Amino acid sequence: MVHEADSKALLGEAGVALPRRDPTSGACVVKLCSDQHPHKTEHGLVKLNVPVAQIGEVGASLRARDSAGVVIVEEMIEDGVAEWIVGCRHDATFGPITVIGAGGIFVELINEAKARLAPVNTETASRAIRSQRACRLLMGARGRPEGDIEGLIGVVTSVSSFFAEHADLIEQIEVNPVIVRPVGQGAVAADALMVLRSRAQFQN
Amino acid sequence: MGSTELAVTPAPHGRRLSGREALNRALAPSSVAVIGASADPLKLGHMVLKTLANSGFEGKIYPINPAAAPILGIPTCASLADVSGHVDVAVVIVPAHQLFAALSACAAKDVALVAAITSGFAEAGNEGRQLQQRLESLLRTVPFRLLGPNCEGYVVPGSKTFVTFSMMTHGLKSGPVGIVGQSGAITGTLSYRLNKMGVGVRALISTGNETDLTAVEALEWFADDPQTTTIIAYLEQIREPARFIAAARRVCGLKAIVIEKPGKGNATMESVTTHTGAIAGDDRVAEGVFEELRIVRARDHTTAVDAAVALSLGKRLGGLRVGILSVAGGLAVEACDLFEARGFEVPRFSDELQQKIRASLPYFAAARNPVDLTGAALSSPALFRQAVDAVVQGDSVDAVIVIVTFSQQPAFAEELMMAAKATDKPVLIVWTAPDTISPAPLAVFKKQSFPIFDAPLRALTALSAIARYSGLQ
Q1: ipTM, interface predicted TM-score of the complex
Q2: What is the pLDDT of residue A199?
């Protein structure tokens, strides 16, 4: 398993849009990323709405829980229009595939996720997204703003390309949620996880 | 197992034929040997010989049977080695442990393809699996390609090559649809039903256990064959996915592929610790890949036939708007409900268009869409034509469904076919009466290989297939 901080470092280099790090104003999210605790939220290792002034204190208290962990501080995104999931894995028949689904952590409930062969190009990503009924939530539903579908497409193509390129090393990638912001604000990978293939050598 | 394996003489060219080379020779062969031919009418070895002999096959037929007595009046040799002429294809129906000797004889005779109807291999428990392994080793040393074992053979109506025991293929007519399947029963009934709807078959290939030739190689052959426009495949397993994907991509949007693939449910074998694992089970992935490659997925063989028949019309959909023209109001409503539930739109026609349609109809006809042409239309074939022409012009709809109950006038069939041919938009005909009630018009449709559907649901399957192939659904 590759925890969030390291996963984001790799994905960021691959061109995947990420939340801004170490903001100097506004509300923040402070997280402890650690191999010991892959499910951060369940262990109380994600603190939301932290004012900039308290980052140091909150960070320190998290680090005390696990000295091997890495603390990351990100802008807190409050204008998300919808959450989506982008996941990559090896299918027994078809090889490297990518799934794209509306709903973030509720993706199984909404149950509309589409699988496509990795790498996914822009056209294919666009169609896979727009063919889901839940995509209507990105098109200005009930007076809410329209979501940056192009940004979501960008996350899909960059994550799936990265996976396809390193498919021999990576077992699985999960970017969940991708927060889709209003048109013009892009879409960002709010959380990310990778699982390496068993005998892979991981180089920083 | 007790049988002695003959030493295999390496072929003069010393290499294995490619799937394409083997199929090229096998699908238009000049000679077929039937190894395991039998005089006993109850045996498969008899049925295979009889089917081939009665098909009108113009090449040489060589029954092989140790007794060497003529069967069905055809001179018979005791072994393949005794045949003096060239042999392109051998079909083998001997018990499993005798297969190896037969294959060795085929290697020595420069056979291109061996269709092994013989069963009792990997599908038959432990002993069978051992035999299969032995078979795999032998195959590495021979030039020919093997279809099967445990397959139903293959049929090519155009060259009258019937190498099969399947009775479902009797009288099969030639046409543009290629059929390949891992189940002979399913490929057989697919071919029969296609023919019944007036659509012919390019070739039917039953791949059985796929120890050597796979359905994917057959699919590749169809993809590159100029006489094939539509492919139906029954696949339980896709054994060569990279080749499958490459072939499907090559023909995407050019030739339609319909696949019946049983689902195994959504559970993945690995423990599910991520959402990705939970939402990307085998069947969901197959669905997604098929959608991406514009492959029509059929859940059963009857819908596979309706899909292939529709696709053989060669039309595409530019959108999902449907016009419904019907002689009966009830059927129009049924069709409307079905199409709307499946994501099609049945848009209200403009006042102008409604007026145009209503001009030739009784005052009580509804023209909003669906259009109720009323029973009065049954006396006027030209009326149908005018109505379809009016609806397909301009940009009101992307497809038309015409629903007829019964009529005995051949002119109806002619007018409707002309209307369908006059436009690029799909025009699908639903005709509910059977041939016993409407013999003349239905015969006209069939003669021109113009498929019609006997219920709105089947027209829906048809149009959905065209939508998938067009990249819309």
Answers
A1: 0.90
A2: 67
